[in-house]
Write a structure and sequence with these properties.
The chain is α/β, with parallel strands linked by helices. The protein is about 45% helix and about 15% strand.
Length: about 220
């Protein structure tokens, strides 16, 4: 079972500044969470993220797990090349009641980290082998990424963005979940909105959706 963990607004600590650390940080950038990288050194890609202020960085000599006590993370990801240290980090984080992930040991992790196809930061498609073979998960991602990007068109991305706007507005004016669902499907199936989206006119499509909401009973 693949679960989409809601990290919005939460602190995620990634320990380790190498290639595995980069992969995990890169996957977190679209999650609207606070990212703290802890390591004694970082690779070029992570250094760029730090310079761009996409993440925070704490330079720390990784000898033990004492550094974790200074923070209250929601999730801790251990990505160092020291398996024993990763285990200690995971054990410490579990005592702190955090979600945990070790890049080299799925058995001690709370979840498997899938390979994700990211389409315009709007659609994420996860490919997972449940930790059995991360290498095959990555290979399958590469094999299918171009296919999914052809299937999911620009109109689909616009429709998703419009649905988000309509859903947020509907929560304030339509009291029941059943009626909100009916309204959102009416927006989804509206021929005028479909044509406006096809014409790349998201603003008018949004106006049309708001007009429909104002008349909804």
């Amino acid at each position: 079972m693949i679960v989409d963990l809601n990290l919005k607004g939460n602190l995620v600590i990634v320990v380790g500044g190498g290639d595995e650390g980069y992969k995990k940080v890169n996957s977190l950038l679209t999650q609207d969470c606070k990212i703290l990288l802890i390591s004694d050194k970082v690779n070029t890609q992570l250094s760029n993220f730090i310079k761009q202020k996409k993440i925070k960085f704490k330079k720390t000599k990784l000898k033990d797990t004492g550094f974790l006590s200074k923070y209250k993370p929601f999730l801790v990801m251990a990505t160092t090349n020291d398996r024993q240290l990763n285990r200690k980090i995971i054990q410490k984080a579990k005592k702190m009641k955090c979600y945990v992930y070790a890049s080299d040991d799925p058995e001690v992790s709370d979840f498997a980290h899938p390979s994700v196809i990211n389409i315009e930061d709007t659609v994420q498609i996860a490919i997972s082998t449940g930790g059995k073979s991360p290498a095959m998960a990555r290979r399958l991602k590469l094999q299918t990424e171009k296919i999914f990007k052809k299937i999911i068109k620009k109109e689909d991305i616009y429709q998703i963005k419009l649905q988000q706007i309509a859903r947020d507005k509907a929560k304030k004016t339509i009291p029941t979940q059943i009626e909100r669902k009916k309204y959102l499907y009416s927006v989804l199936n509206d021929k005028t909105i479909k044509q406006l989206i096809k014409d790349n006119n998201l603003k008018k499509a949004q106006q049309r959706a708001m007009l429909m909401l104002s008349k909804w009973k």
